[in-house]
Amino acid sequence: MKIIKSKVITDTVEKMCQEANIYLPCDIKEKLEKAQNDEISPVGKDILSKICDNFNIAKEKEMPICQDTGMAVFFVKIGTEVFVEGNITDAINEGVRRGYVNLRKSVVKDPVLRGNTNDNTPAIIHYEFFDGDYIEITIAPKGFGSENMSAIKMLSPSAGLEGILNFVVETISKAGSNPCPPVIVGVGIGGTFEKCAYLAKKALTRDINVSNENEFYKEMEDTLLKRINNLGIGPQGFGGIITALKVNVETFPTHIAGMPVAVNVGCHVTRHLTKTIS
Questions:
Q1: Residues pairing with 71 in the sheet
Q2: Could you tell me how many helices (H) and strands (E) the chain has, helices first?
Q3: pLDDT (tens place) for every residue of the chain, 278 residues total
Q4: Please, are residues 212 and 218 in contact by the beta-carbon 8 Å criterion?
Q5: The overall pTM is greater than 0.90
Q6: CA 83, CA 135: separation in Å to the nearest integer?
Q7: Radius of gyration of the chain measured on its C-alpha atoms
Q8: What residues form DSSP beta bridges with 252?
């Protein structure tokens, strides 16, 4: 049995909060750089150039890529051979509290009554267990310019593939410039109301150079990307052929009477970072 002290988790999360908000993931950075060459709109090309300048400056000066440093979302995989000495949820929240000292605090105590918590806690934490002797933590700080453009729909099975495609494209079309395109689109299909939303959020943490392993869903990702880029929204909504960098689809078994679909929209700085504690 591997014993991991809660302090180690806190220290790790503290650093992750800072790193994830300062350094853009390599997969997204490379896609944005490539997009400069692919974009045919002069205005869009110029905007993409400025976006790339921004993430390079953020790295050089160790400043946040975006002023909205988001609500801290975590996907935590815990090995069954691990014993955490202390409360892991408290440890993660303490890490967020410390990690966001010099970052914008965007969390309110109550969704209706509001009132800032002043330390960006509590975090949103999803736990998963697996056979192993380590803990894997993925952080995905989520800004709400893009989060607010997300949607969920309880489709009937009769809607079929075309129903799913239309819903996803319609969601991005309605979003327009609001989520700061070019966007990354997470799509969750199946499960229940809450499960498909979880899948869509988790899909945003997948490397955008990696397609779904199932050929059917890989083709769906490619089809959706093409249709979305045909909308002509373009970088920051000023027109062009690069509205999205990637569409990631994740699925789960569902009930015979339903076909839940969720779309989680990520902006051009869809931040995510994974660390392992062993």
A1: 142
A2: 8, 10
A3: 899 999 999 999 999 999 999 999 999 999 999 999 999 999 999 999 999 999 999 999 999 999 999 999 999 999 999 999 999 999 999 999 999 999 999 999 999 999 999 999 999 999 999 999 999 999 999 999 999 999 999 999 999 999 999 999 999 999 999 999 999 999 999 999 999 999 999 999 999 999 999 999 999 999 999 999 999 999 999 999 999 999 999 999 999 999 999 999 999 999 999 999 99
A4: yes
A5: yes
A6: 10
A7: 19
A8: 190
Looking at the DSSP assignment, which residues form a beta bridge with residue 190? 252
Chain mean position to CA 150: 11
- Within 10 angstroms of residue 81's Cβ, the number of other Cβ atoms is 12
Residue type, 82: V
Closest CA relative to residue 63, chosen from 102, 28, 97, 114: 102
Give the pair of three-digit tokens for residue 45: 């090309």
As a whole number of angstroms, the distance between CA 256 and CA 142 comes to: 33
For residue 220, the Cα-to-chain-centroid distance in whole angstroms is 19
**Cβ-proximal residues to 250 (8 Å cutoff; 6+ apart), any chain:** 186, 187, 188, 189, 199, 200, 202, 203, 206, 212
